[in-house]
Design a protein that fits this description.
The structure holds 2 protein chains of 2 kinds. By secondary structure, chain A is of the alpha/beta class. Chain A folds into 2 domains: 41 residues; 116 residues, Periplasmic binding protein-like II (D-Maltodextrin-Binding Protein, domain 2), CATH 3.40.190. Chain A is built from 6 helices and 6 strands. Chain A is globular and about 60 Å long. By secondary structure, chain B is mainly beta. A 16-stranded antiparallel beta barrel of chain B has the order 1-2-3-5-6-7-8-10-11-12-13-14-15-16-17-18. The chains are: A alpha/beta, B mainly beta.
C-alpha cells in the first residue's frame, strides 16, 4: 500500500500539477485510497461479544452508551458486561479515540463519577488480549474489543454502523 | 482538497506508520491517534513490578463475584500549611495533617435493571468532621425504560446531591480538581448539607438531535442538616436547638456532545429548613425558617491535553422574621434577611503526559452580591464581624502526579484575599481576628481501587 502511495506521489509531481483535469482524477483516487486505508485501520481490531449475544450489528450511539456504562441491558433484557484493557493500553486508546471518539481520560472520569456516586458500575478491567478473549468468550452478555489477530471463533464479531 | 493533498504527502513520507494519518482525512472530527509521549514506556514499566497490593487487586478484579458485585474504595491524606487562619486544624502553626478522607463502596446488580449501591465515608477535617464513618449514599436504582441512548429510571434512598460538575464525588481526591474544590461553590463548611440527602430521584438520558446527550436528574429530598458546621454557617453560630429537615427539591441537567468535549450544565436546589429552639437551654434564637436556593451554571471544554472549566452560582438566602437574634447594637442579624450570594471560578487543567497534570484556578465568592466588599455588613453588625468575612478571592496553582492508576500525589498553592468560606468552627473568635490576606500550601497522597 505504501509503495503504491509513493508511486502515486511521484506520478503526481511528474504529470499532474500542470493538468487541471488530471488533478481532479488524482484527488479522487487519493480519496478512494484514503477510505480504503481507513477501513483497513479500523479492521485491525474489532468489537467482540459473548457468542450468546443476539446482536450482530450495533449503532455507534449504542456502542458509546454501552462503554459509558449507561446502557446496561441488551435488547433481549439480559445484562451487558463491559470489559476493557488498562487506560494506557494501545488498543484501548485506539478504540476509545476511533470508535467512541473520546479520550481515554474522559472515559476514566465518566466511570469514576458513576462508581463513586453509586449511580453506575465500572467496566471490568482485563490486563491482556488473552484475558480479554477468555473473559468475553466465557461471560454471558460480555462485550469487549480485540486485535483481529487475537480473535477466535469463541467470540462474536460485532459490526458497528 | 488542498488539505487532502497535504495529508496525503505527509502520509507517504511516513511509510512505517500506515495506520495513523488517514483517520483524520476520512472523518475530520475524529481524534488523532497520536499518543501522549509517556504512555507506552510507562505502562510497560508498571506491568513489570506487580506489588503485593496490585496483585491482590488483580486477584480481586479477576475473581468472579456473584450478582456483578463491585467493591471500590479510596483513602487520601493531605498536609495543609497556612500563613494565617486555620483550614482543617491548626494549620497556621507549622501545618497539620488535618484532612483525611476514606471511603468504601459496594454495588450489586441482582437483576439486569436493578442496581443497589452504598458507600461508607469517613472524613476527618477540622472541627466540623471528626472522621466518624457515616452512610454517604445507599440506594436502589431501577431502570424503567432503556432503549439505545435513551434511559429513564428511578432512585430511592440516600443519594448524592446532583449539583455542579463535582458535588457527586467531591470526597474522592481522584475525581476532583485540586486538593480543595473551588470553595465558592463547593463549600466545605456546609458540605454535609449539600452532599447527600434522603430522596426519591427520577433520572433520564436522552439524545439531542444526534449532537449529544442530555442527562437530567430531579429529586425530592430531605436534606441532612444536623451538623454543627452547617448550623454555624446558616445561623451565625452553633446553636443549642436544632435545624429541621423539610421537604426540598434538587435538579440538574447536563448536556454533553457525543465526543464529550463540550459539557454544559445547570443545577438548582430549593432547600427548606427551619429552626427548633431549645426551651430547656434558654435559647437566644426563635423558631425561624429559611430557604436557600442556589442555581449553578457549569461549562467545560475537554481537549486531549487541556480542560477548561467554569461554574457560576447565584445563591439566594431568605430568612423569615422569627429568629429574633438581636445584636448588642440592636441589629437583627438573621430576621428578614433576603440576599443573593454570587460565586464563580475559572479553571484550566493541562496534561503534560497522562502522569503529570497542572492546574490553575481563580475562584471568587461574594456572600451578598449587593455588598461585595462586606462594608455594609460590617457596619450593620457593629464591627463584631469584619468586612472580609463576606468575600473570598482565591488564586490557585497546582501540580498532580498520577504515579500509578491507583496512586496519586499532588501539591497546590493558594493565595486568598478574604475569609468568606473559612469554617467558623475552625476559626473561633477566641483565637483572635482572621487575616484578610493569607496563603495556603497543601500536599496530598491518594490511593484508590
Amino acid at each position: 500500500m505504501n509503495l503504491l502511495q509513493f508511486l502515486i506521489r511521484i506520478q503526481f509531481s511528474r504529470y499532474c500539477l500542470p493538468r487541471v483535469k488530471a488533478y481532479f482524477y488524482y484527488v479522487l483516487l487519493i480519496c478512494v485510497l484514503c477510505v480504503k486505508t481507513e477501513v483497513r485501520a479500523d479492521n485491525d481490531y474489532a468489537i467482540v461479544t459473548y457468542p450468546g449475544v443476539g446482536e450482530k450489528v450495533l449503532s455507534v450511539n449504542s456502542l458509546r452508551s454501552i462503554f459509558s456504562m449507561h446502557l446496561k441491558t441488551w435488547p433481549d433484557g439480559t445484562k451487558i458486561r463491559v470489559f476493557v484493557l488498562p487506560d494506557d493500553d494501545q488498543l484501548h486508546q485506539s478504540f476509545s479515540k476511533e470508535k467512541l471518539n473520546v479520550f481515554p481520560y474522559q472515559l476514566r472520569s465518566m466511570w469514576d463519577r458513576l462508581v463513586f456516586s453509586g449511580t453506575g458500575q465500572a467496566p471490568i478491567k482485563v490486563n491482556s488480549s488473552e484475558e480479554m478473549l477468555a473473559k468475553v468468550a466465557s461471560t454471558p452478555g460480555a462485550i469487549g474489543y480485540l486485535w483481529r489477530a487475537n480473535i477466535s471463533e469463541n467470540v462474536n464479531v460485532l459490526q458497528i454502523k | 482538497m488542498l488539505s487532502l493533498i497535504g495529508s496525503f504527502s505527509a502520509q507517504a513520507q511516513q511509510p512505517n506508520q500506515p495506520r495513523k494519518e488517514p483517520e483524520s482525512i476520512q472523518s475530520p472530527t475524529r481524534l488523532q491517534t497520536s499518543e501522549l509521549p509517556a504512555q507506552a514506556t510507562e505502562s510497560a514499566e508498571a506491568k513489570k513490578k506487580p506489588g503485593a497490593i496490585s496483585s491482590a487487586l488483580n486477584w480481586w478484579r479477576t475473581t468472579e463475584l456473584p450478582g456483578d458485585l463491585q467493591i471500590h474504595g479510596f483513602a487520601s491524606q493531605a498536609y495543609i500549611l497556612t500563613s494565617d487562619n486555620d483550614v482543617f486544624g491548626n494549620s497556621d502553626d507549622g501545618g497539620r495533617f488535618g484532612l483525611t478522607e476514606a471511603g468504601l463502596n459496594a454495588s450489586v446488580r441482582p437483576l439486569p435493571r436493578l442496581q443497589l449501591s452504598a458507600q461508607v465515608l469517613s472524613r476527618r477535617a477540622g472541627e466540623g468532621n471528626t472522621g466518624t464513618p457515616r452512610l454517604d449514599y445507599g440506594f436502589l436504582d431501577y431502570r424503567l425504560f432503556s432503549q439505545e441512548v435513551n434511559q429513564f429510571g428511578i432512585r430511592v434512598g440516600r443519594l448524592k446531591n446532583p449539583f455542579g460538575f463535582y458535588n457527586d464525588t467531591r470526597d474522592v481526591a481522584f475525581t476532583r480538581p485540586g486538593i480543595l474544590l473551588p470553595q465558592s461553590i463547593y463549600f466545605d463548611r456546609t458540605r454535609n448539607l449539600g452532599l447527600s440527602s434522603d430522596s426519591v430521584q427520577l433520572y433520564g438520558d436522552t439524545t439531542l438531535f444526534n449532537l449529544g446527550t442530555v442527562s437530567t436528574q430531579f429529586g425530592v429530598t430531605l436534606p441532612v442538616v444536623n451538623d454543627r458546621d452547617t448550623e454555624s454557617s446558616l445561623l451565625a453560630g452553633v446553636r443549642v436547638g436544632q435545624l429541621n429537615r423539610e421537604v426540598s427539591y434538587i435538579g440538574r441537567a447536563i448536556f454533553e456532545t457525543n465526543d464529550k468535549r463540550l459539557r454544559l450544565g445547570v443545577s438548582g436546589i430549593w432547600l427548606n429548613t427551619s429552626y427548633d429552639p431549645s426551651i430547656s437551654h434558654n435559647d437566644r434564637l426563635g423558631p425561624g425558617a429559611l430557604q436557600f436556593t442556589p442555581v449553578i451554571f457549569s461549562a467545560q471544554y475537554n481537549a486531549e491535553r487541556w480542560t477548561l472549566t467554569s461554574e457560576y452560582a447565584i445563591r439566594h438566602f431568605k430568612y423569615d422574621n422569627n429568629f429574633n437574634l438581636v445584636l448588642p447594637n440592636g441589629y437583627h442579624l438573621l430576621d428578614n434577611q433576603n440576599f443573593y450570594g454570587e460565586s464563580y471560578y475559572f479553571q484550566g487543567e493541562y496534561r503534560f503526559t497522562p502522569k503529570w497534570e497542572a492546574i490553575v484556578r481563580y475562584d471568587a465568592l461574594f456572600t451578598d452580591r449587593s455588598d461585595r466588599n462586606g462594608s455594609k455588613f460590617a457596619h450593620n453588625v457593629g464591627g463584631i464581624a469584619p468586612a472580609h468575612s463576606r468575600f473570598a478571592k482565591d488564586i490557585m496553582v497546582g501540580l498532580r502526579w498520577n504515579v500509578t492508576p491507583e496512586f496519586m500525589l499532588r501539591a497546590e498553592y493558594h493565595h486568598v484575599n478574604g475569609t468568606g468560606w473559612l469554617s467558623r468552627l475552625d476559626n473561633p473568635a477566641s483565637e483572635g481576628p482572621l487575616s484578610q490576606h493569607w496563603d495556603l500550601y497543601a500536599i496530598q497522597a491518594s490511593f484508590r481501587f
